[in-house]
Structure prediction request, 276 residues.
Amino acid sequence: MLSLNNLGIICISQALQHSPKLLAIRQWLSKASSRATLCNNSITFSSKGTRRHTGFRLLNESTVKHVSSLQTTFCTASVKLHCWNCSQSIEQTPAFFCLSCNFVQPPDERASYFLIMECDQTFALDTQRLQKTYLKLQRSLHPDNFSQKTMKEQEYSEYQSALVNKAYRTLLKPLSRGLYMLELNGMGIEEGTDAGADPLFLMELMEINQALDEARSKEESAKIGASMKEKLKDLTEQIDASLHKGELQDAKALLAQMKYFANIEEKVKEKLSELM
Prediction:
């Protein structure tokens, strides 16, 4: 694992009773997830956002949940990284492989999901390009490719794989992407019903849920589903405009609405399965 002495300031607030390997994975993925209350809190949401790159692979769900459970707060200064194998300077960010010896590297803590997935830091990103990047990284970083390599390379490929999968899943859907962009700017949306929400909006949600519960045919359920798609499409456009202008509070309010409608859309899918 990359020596922590090479990093700026790292504060780890979780217990050390876990196995060394699981703790290492947790540390890497928790930091990279960055809940980025990073030192740099000045994020610009524009279509000309900073370009960024990635890592990859899906570990089993329990491992990912364990990894995500470790919350780490840290700040990184300008740090010069070196290959753990040949000690050559690592200039690119993030670095999946050393350009000198081609050994897989540990995840780069300075990289956001946008940088990892080689995307512009914008809400309206190209999901087809995102998928192509994901598949490319998967082919090169999948742990199966390192089964005959050293134990350290196998572990680093696992870390990179888990991180790339999480980055891909987060950026793929508008809701999780928008929430992540808010997190990068130190904002979040609380779980549960928002007590401060517009009563008319809450009434609308209640009526939609009631109509879905009472739906007895695929046609009725599909009609509600189509309505949700339209609402989500409209919200996506509004959120993109708000983030582009830097109106984060407006974007936060719209994303809160999107959470509710996305939840109903999932219920519609479940309802349609039941009626098949």
Observations:
- DSSP finds nine helices and four strands in the chain.
- Residues 1-19, 31-77 have pLDDT under 50 and may be disordered.
- Strands lie at 9-12, 72-75, 81-82, 89-90.
- The radius of gyration is 21 Å.
